[in-house]
Design a protein that fits this description.
It is built from 10 helices and 10 strands. The protein is α+β, with helices and mostly antiparallel strands. The chain has a domain at about 5-60 and about 155-295: 2-Layer Sandwich (Thymidylate Synthase, Chain A). The strands form 3 sheets. It has a 6-stranded mixed β-sheet with strand order 1-2-8-7-6-5. It has a two-stranded antiparallel ribbon with strand order 3-4. Helix 1 packs across helix 10 (about 255-265), helix 2 (about 60-70) crosses helix 7 and helix 2 (about 60-70) crosses helix 9 (about 215-235). The longest helix has 18 residues, at about 215-235.
């Protein structure tokens, strides 16, 4: 009997906790880290790398992916959908810049209720979606100055190149815009996606420069495979292999209780994703288009997010 694909994730978690280099990190919390990890998942038959040894809120991750594809950088659309995963960064900036010691929940409530407040304080800078669908360009003018040019929609370009030139080695979506890193609330962690056509199957490799294995990676695995599935549908290919590669792949020292509990659990079943509608473009999917079958995870394990 073949090993459950989730074993790869659990084995990586165990290796990091037992063998990882203990390091001081940006957040001040500290991590145990390994460098250069790889996980591989075959998406044939609707299979998805949806972690079952704790509950992963896949609809939240899906809403985030759909938000990326709009090019939006303000948290308000997520807040209005009850998605909380980006709230800590603008809240921390607000407290730092204003000196007002407002509770996170109260800050988020103001984002939801006050559009002008959200416009001022809810923006994350040119994060993921902005780079994916509106990478900035500049034109050189005759007077020697530069002016903004038309943004590059990398996602649309990849979909078109997969249709017209499937053998290309340039099917890439890149988030690491060096010129704009300092303006981002958080530089892109899942930074580079490359797609590869083999026969009638679409493969995807995701490189992640920095990965919180306990809290972040379950979302990243789902989201990367989801994007692959959506693009495969749009270009009339079957989903192939999803390959995840991590640079600094770590566990936070204050997540010991999560690690201990999760490693004591066994994977549960093999979840499948059904995309019930094929929209006109990659940018027209809705949350209702996705149904997960066979997902019966063990309970959530709560742990603090490092900001």
């Amino acid at each position: 009997m073949t090993a459950h694909p989730e074993r790869q994730y659990l084995d990586l978690m165990r290796r990091i906790w037992n063998e990882g280099d203990e390091r001081t990190d940006r957040t001040g919390i500290g991590t145990r880290s390994v460098f250069g990890a790889m996980l591989r998942f075959d998406l044939a038959g609707g299979a998805m790398p949806l972690i079952t040894t704790k509950r992963v809120y896949w609809k939240t991750a899906t809403r985030e992916m759909l938000w990326f594809l709009t090019g939006e950088t303000n948290i308000r659309p997520l807040v209005l959908q009850g998605v909380k995963i980006w709230n800590e960064w603008p809240h921390a900036r607000y407290v730092r810049e204003t000196g007002e010691d407002i509770a996170l929940d109260d800050f988020v409530q103001r984002i939801a209720e006050d559009e002008s407040f959200a416009q001022r304080w809810g923006d994350l800078g040119p994060v993921y979606g902005k780079q994916w669908v509106d990478w900035p360009t500049f034109r050189y003018r005759k007077d020697g100055l530069y002016e903004p040019g038309e943004g590059i929609n990398q996602v649309a370009q990849v979909v078109e190149s997969l249709r017209t030139n499937p053998g290309s080695r340039r099917h890439i979506i890149e988030g690491w815009n060096v010129a704009e890193i300092d303006r981002m609330a958080l530089p892109p962690c899942h930074k580079s996606y490359q797609f590869h056509v083999a026969g009638n199957r679409l493969n995807c490799a995701l490189y992640q420069r920095s990965c919180d294995v306990a809290l972040g990676l379950p979302f990243n695995l789902w989201s990367g495979a989801l994007l692959q599935r959506m693009i495969a549908q749009q270009v009339d290919l079957e989903p192939g292999e999803f390959v995840w590669m991590g640079g600094d792949t770590h566990l936070y020292l204050n997540h010991e209780h999560l690690v201990t509990e999760q490693l004591a659990r066994e994977p549960q079943g093999r979840p499948r994703l059904e995309i019930v509608r094929r929209p006109e473009t990659i940018f027209d999917y809705r949350i209702e288009d996705f149904e997960v079958h066979g997902y019966a995870p063990l309970g959530a394990i709560r742990a603090p997010v490092a900001v």
